[in-house]
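Tokens in:
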């Protein structure tokens, strides 16, 4: 309007008039670009604002350099403590006793630290009311990953303990115990008393030795059946006068759990169907050993045979090869138990990072305007919520700088730049 009035009154030369008109046109274009209602209407009526796809992807709002680097950083920082807790729990059954204690203490420390962070944040909300005064989005932002990390660490501790116990009982316990014992070859159960090889771990019997599956013994306890079968020459127990071993005692038994019919005494444990099996590896199941002894007592009573020093073996084709296979199987299972959960946790963390990004993009969470710690909580925030505490201090300094700049007539940064900086910030409290 001012330019039209000037032109109407004929003030200035033609050159000045043309420059003034050009300035008017440029100003009108700028205003149209900033406040174009048609453009804004078209933008906010797009499909991503009305579908779950927009919530998860938000492609039209995503800054160019946000997606991969920030999400990977957040996912990695979430994955590290979870994997550490899992590995420490996994090692608790597989290492020496004093190292197992250190692993348990490490797991307790990490979970306690995460629980402490959540407790301080919860008390700040309940007591200090930090979620008020338009700070709800900031509280959601700073509590998102700590909550998930605490849950994942608890699950990892339980899963690591169960996995470790399975590896110990299925492979490593027997391998470790047999490693401390001796290997014997050419043992004749008819002439060698059990007392003579009480330190046996793996035994190769003489050719022709077998188990008498038709004359087995059993004992039932708490729903489990403990099975025993004598290891004798030619695989048959002879019931005549000269059928007993020269020592007068049946001391070698193949054993198993829930692999025989009781009271029918049909033994089907280990390599019972393999005619080439002529060896046994020492049973290291300490919980089952007393019940194996009761099963031998029942067998002795049923067949009127003596057993002075019974030794319990798992019937296998080659004891030494079976012992080595325990180590190989343990290494394979351990590799799977380490690699697979790590990849799964990282995948979950990446998903959580994308969800948090979507929440920030749609205005449900924000790292801006971080509330100040309630009175008396400053030390607790510095200890348990260090990044949130530091961000609050940075926001305070930024507000002071903005106020000072406004006093000197300096324009504050645009909101869009602050929003982009917020999305690109990878800081999540530990």
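Residues out:
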């Amino acid at each position: 309007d001012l330019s039209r009035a000037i032109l109407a009154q004929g003030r200035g030369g033609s050159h000045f008039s043309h420059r003034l008109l050009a300035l008017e046109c440029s100003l009108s274009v700028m205003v149209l670009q900033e406040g174009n209602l048609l453009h804004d209407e078209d933008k906010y009526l797009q499909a991503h604002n009305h579908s779950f796809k927009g919530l998860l992807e938000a492609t039209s709002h995503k800054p160019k350099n946000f997606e991969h680097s920030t999400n990977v950083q957040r996912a990695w920082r979430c994955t590290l403590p979870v994997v550490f807790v899992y590995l420490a729990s996994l090692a608790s059954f597989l290492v020496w006793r004093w190292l197992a204690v250190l692993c348990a203490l490490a797991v307790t420390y990490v979970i306690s630290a995460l629980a402490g962070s959540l407790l301080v944040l919860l008390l700040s909300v309940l007591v200090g009311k930090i979620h008020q005064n338009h700070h709800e989005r900031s509280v959601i932002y700073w509590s998102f990953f700590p909550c998930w990390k605490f849950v994942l660490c608890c699950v990892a501790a339980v899963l690591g303990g169960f996995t470790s116990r399975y590896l110990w009982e299925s492979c490593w316990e027997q391998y470790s115990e047999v490693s401390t014992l001796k290997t014997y070859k050419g043992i004749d159960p008819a002439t060698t008393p059990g007392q003579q090889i009480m330190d046996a771990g793996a035994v190769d019997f003489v050719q022709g030795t077998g188990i008498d599956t038709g004359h087995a013994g059993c004992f039932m306890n708490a729903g489990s059946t403990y099975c025993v079968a004598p290891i004798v020459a030619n695989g048959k127990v002879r019931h005549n006068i000269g059928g007993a071993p020269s020592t007068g005692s049946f001391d070698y038994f193949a054993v198993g759990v829930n692999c025989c019919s009781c009271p029918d005494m049909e033994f089907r444990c280990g390599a019972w169907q393999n005619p080439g099996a002529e060896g046994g590896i020492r049973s290291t199941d300490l919980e089952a050993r007393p019940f194996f002894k009761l099963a031998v007592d029942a067998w002795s009573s049923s067949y009127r045979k003596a057993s002075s020093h019974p030794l319990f073996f798992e019937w296998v084709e080659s004891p030494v090869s079976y012992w080595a296979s325990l180590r190989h199987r343990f290494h394979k299972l351990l590799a799977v138990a380490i690699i697979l959960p790590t990849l799964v946790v990282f995948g979950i963390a990446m998903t959580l990072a994308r969800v948090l990004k979507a929440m920030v993009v749609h205005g449900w969470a924000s790292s801006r305007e971080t509330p100040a710690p309630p009175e008396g909580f400053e030390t607790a925030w510095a200890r348990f919520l260090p990044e949130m505490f530091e961000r609050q201090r940075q926001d305070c300094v930024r507000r002071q700088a903005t106020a000072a700049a406004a006093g000197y007539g300096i324009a504050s940064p645009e909101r869009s730049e602050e929003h982009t900086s917020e999305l690109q910030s990878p800081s999540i409290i530990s």
